[in-house]
Amino acid sequence: MVKRVKKRLVLRFPADRVNEPITYVLIKDYDVSINILNADITHGKEGNLLIEMRGEAAKMDEALEYLKDRKVHISPVVKTILFNEKDCIHCGACASVCFPGALTMKNSNRKLKFSPDRCVACELCIKACPLQLFELNFGA
Question: What is residue 54's predicted lDDT score, i.e. its pLDDT?
Fold first, then answer.
């Protein structure tokens, strides 16, 4: 049985690598799926990608070596969002800014649902919540 893994990573590209098709190579040559969660890439400057990679463990290791060889700095995502659900009034302000869909409102009962596995720790919910029920947690 082939072991499949999922990793959330921040990739920092040096300026001389921004115009290379690095994500294309990862998909084509290493058979990993890539979901770009956030990107900040400017021609002639450093580029940053927040991605989720999925694939076979062995292929993932090869893909990460390829990135290192291309001088791409790799950092695991180590921050998470903590939600104080018991004090929530289900106003939906946080769900309206949650682009990955980690916070959703159920139409049937108007209750907020938090799915931490979808959260990318973008911190928009922290700013949007009128009761300040979200906080940033750093850790592995």
Answer: 94
At residue 31, the pLDDT reads 94
Task: Look up residue 20 and give its DSSP letter.
Answer: S
Please check whether residue 126 is in contact with residue 79, taking contact to mean a CB–CB distance below 8 angstroms.
no
Q: Which residue segment(s) compose the domain that 28 sits in?
A: 4-76
Sheet arrangement for strand 73-76: 33-41, 47-56, 4-13, 73-76
Count other Cβ atoms within 10 Å, centred on residue 29.
12
Q: Please check whether residues 17 and 68 belong to one and the same domain.
A: yes
The pLDDT score that the predictor gives to residue 130 is 96
Res. 140: pLDDT tops 70: no
* 20, 83 contact by CB (below 8 A): no
> Is the pLDDT reported for residue 39 higher than 50?
yes
Domain total in the chain: 2
Q: Are residues 64 and 12 in the same domain?
A: yes
CATH of the domain at 26: 3.30.70.260
